Known about the structure:
The structure holds two protein chains of two kinds.
Chain A: E1 7-10, H1 14-24, E2 29-31, H2 37-42, E3 50-53, E4 63-66, E5 70-74, H3 79-84, H4 86-91, H5 93-98, H6 105-108, H7 113-119, H8 125-132, E6 136-140, E7 145-149, H9 150-153, E8 154-156, E9 159-160, E10 167-174, E11 180-187, E12 197-206, E13 209-218, E14 225-226, H10 228-234, H11 241-254, H12 265-284
Parallel strand pairs in A: 1-3, 2-3
Antiparallel strand pairs in A: 4-5, 5-10, 6-7, 6-10, 8-9, 11-12, 12-13, 13-14
Helix pairs in contact in A: 10-11, 11-12
Chain B: E1 4-11, E2 14-21, H1 26-33, E3 52-55, E4 58-61, E5 74-76, H2 78-84, H3 88-96, H4 106-119, H5 125-131, H6 143-156
Parallel strand pairs in B: 1-5
Antiparallel strand pairs in B: 1-2, 3-4, 3-5
Helix pairs in contact in B: 3-6
Amino acid sequence: MKAPPLSYVRAATLSEVFQLWRDAGPESRLLAGGQTLLATLAFRLSEPGTLIDISRLRELRGVTQAGSSAIRVGALTTHAELGRHELIRSHVPLLAEAVPLIAHPAIRNRGTIGGSLAFADPAAELPACCVALDATIIARNAADERRIPAAQFFTGLYATALRPYELIAAVEFPIAKAGERATILELARRSGDYAMAGLAAKVRLAGTTLVEPQLVFFGLGERPAVAERAMAVISGQQVLASTIAAAQAALDADLDPPADQHGSPQTKRHLARVLLARALKRLAGTEDARAA
Amino acid sequence: MSTHLDITLTVNGERVTRRIEARRHLIDLLRLDLGLMGSHAGCEHGFCGACTVRVDGAIVRGCLVLAASLDGAQVETIEGVSDSGEIRDLQEAFVARNAAQCGYCTPGMLLTAAELLKASPAPTREEIREHLSGNYCRCTGYHAIVDAVAAAAAKRNGGVVR
Lengths: 292, 162
């Protein structure tokens, strides 16, 4: 339970990160909040040789409005900062709702959004939120910056579209539009643990009709799973018992959850159905979601 | 880039300088290098919460923080907050309610509860449970701990129990 021997170096500027990174080689790792990385080191799941501490880089901090339609969240924003930031609470409320589900207070004080997305744990909340909200990952390397839609960012189990020597600088979230509702639900053995199954959902309500729904499940596969068929089933519908049942049936083809320590594929499919019903009722505001 | 480095930080108000291994986590620095045995190493991978301490005013898992990254930081441990009297009421409530049995989780529980009461002076029992959910206790079954935190909160609020 002790980390393997390693070297440590702290970067003072963003350009210095890339220089240090090249010098240390591709096995080295960036250290941000460390809340996942240091646990994996304790388990000796990785032996990076060198850790490059980026946690003090001002360039990667801050939550700001980016133009009239987006909020830019610096990669080093902690979960705790995200949960209490006024711009997030007013304009990207799904993120504020997700924060209490992420681990525990002491971990939220240190873990960062950039770290969570770069690690890409299939059971983590923020990757699913980013996909549901159509966020854009802003990646940087020594030479330039590129914008990656969240839907293309998570490429597999703990795998992302980041290239060697490229880091996440920030994430941009569209500002929630009028009539838009979003929610996140998960089932976990202990509050704050990784979810057995979770769902980040977003929809626009035209009266009581569901428009442009987004249903993104987590903890049910190698990466955030967009339930395309269930989304098609509920699009243009009202939240009635029949809508919910049809959407639940459609999940069978949308999801292919592997067995894990939390249960069999059948168990996971059942949990996904339960979450979908709760989320749809909550989005429609028809009844107490807990009663589902 | 080095496997050993010199750091200077403030621990419980006292400035300390040490040469440490880069892989050393904060709890080993506190316990093994500084002799502050009140912070406990439990699972050492971020699960149990026994190692909860404060860094720059906010609680953290001491086992998930590299000491090397703390050059210039302010660290507070159970020894520091006990000496200052900041959480005396919580500690007295833990004693009164028998919320500490073996005591292994207690320092972490106290620092976590202290942060809750600072942010939310009148928490419900549900909020207390939620805030302490990352701190394992294997003795009490948690009821006595929740009782103690609720009692301390109520006392701070002039006896109002929610």
